[in-house]
């Protein structure tokens, strides 16, 4: 007797035929990426800003910072870190208030879609654009300025976890700070000054140890400084760690501070995030 077997239910679908959780998240992520790419201003600023800055710095500082390390090799770490902060913290902090003001978030909340799917879509967008932006920045720096890429698997692994923890912390903080903007227009006014100040005091535009001590101490309270420091351990010689304020790259402390900011970001998101404006109730 011949038996027939029913086709297995795809892992991406529920028994009712509806998309599963993973499929919903990926679909929302594709939507977020598409919306981002349709905004030419956001694409140009987010993708182009780090590249423009490294071109400027490489043209101004063409020599060595010391110990055989070129200025370009030093500043690429800050450009990668600030690029990841831009696509996560700054981008989300500006665009979420716009979506809230237009009623987009209110409509999302009224649909059967689980709320976490919307957040997952934002995370997928940040990760995808962040990877593309970093790859483009490294390609330009290698092609034009002979950037030395990490030569060992260990350094690439460090690059991965520093960037991963850093972009997670910045993403959560970007979602949290979006609640401070009362209207769509005020999002940029709230987020941009914070991002600029952090860039100036965290070793993005200047050699970190050249900054005043009090400024270094303030920067150490925030994740961008630790992202830059962790990335310096990847792109600079091991001996260069002795020139850091702590006498080494302090990768353990880098991981601890970035992980702590991830926890802080989760708490802030859970306690402050709003789906509607005050006028909507």
From TrEMBL:
Keywords: Antibiotic resistance, Cell membrane, Membrane, Transmembrane, Transmembrane helix, Transport. PROSITE patterns: ABC_TM2 (PS51012). It is a multi-pass membrane protein. Pfam families: ABC2_membrane (PF01061). This is Transport permease protein. InterPro entries: ABC2_TM, ABC2_TM_bact-type, ABC_2_transport, Nod_factor_ABC_transporter. It comes from Micromonospora zamorensis. Belongs to the ABC-2 integral membrane protein family. Residues 1-20 are annotated as: Disordered. Residues 1-15 have a biased composition (Low complexity). Residues 41-276 form the ABC transmembrane type-2 domain.
